[in-house]
Amino acid sequence: MSSDSDLEASSSEAPATERTFDLSVLQAPAMCPSLQELSGTTILAKYPRGKEKTPENLTFQAVITDWARTCKRVGKDSAMKLGIAGNITPGPAWKGGEIFLPIRVAVTNEVDDVEKTTYSKLFSVPVTLGAGSPSATWAFVEEGIILPNETGQNVVFGFDEN
Question: Which of 16, 105, 135, 140 could bridge 89 with an S-S bond, Cβ 3.0-4.6 Å?
């Protein structure tokens, strides 16, 4: 049973404020293409120019071991953050210094059974490796990949020596 004083107390409170609704939750989610290593491009072995490709002439060997991506909606497009990581092992011919790993990232889109490249960029990933040091890990992150928010896209990556 309520009294007049209860009714009076409840009516003296400030009226509820108007709440705003974030309309971005109604947008379609960002398209996040699948990641796929390009066959035959996840290992990079370097030898000195003009030398035979033998184990004792190996300068270094780099391997891609991990990759991941996240996507978010940016206007009508999707923004992808891509990470690629791996290991690098010096060979007997390594004298120490900095290595620049050539990593190609490309986005392909299949339309009417025709594969078209919509994005392709070669990145140079610096890695410092001392003479006689053991293997080291390296990582690369690229945040600025803008993609149309469409289905049928794939992201391919690997070492690119060309």
Answer: 135
E strands within the chain? 34-37, 43-46, 60-74, 77-90, 97-111, 114-129, 136-148, 153-159
Per-residue CA distances from 31 to 9, 15, 26, 28, 116 (Å): 52, 42, 15, 9, 18
Which residue has tokens 């006689």? 132
pLDDT in tens, 83-112: 999 999 999 999 999 999 999 999 988 777
Instruction: Please state, in angstroms and rounded to a whole number, the distance separating the CA atoms of residues 17 and 13.
Output: 12
pTM of the model: 0.76
Residue 9 phi/psi, 5-degree rounding, is: -65, -40
What b/e sequence results for 70-85 when a residue is b if at least 16 CB atoms lie within 10 Å of its CB, and e otherwise? ebeeeeeebbbebebe
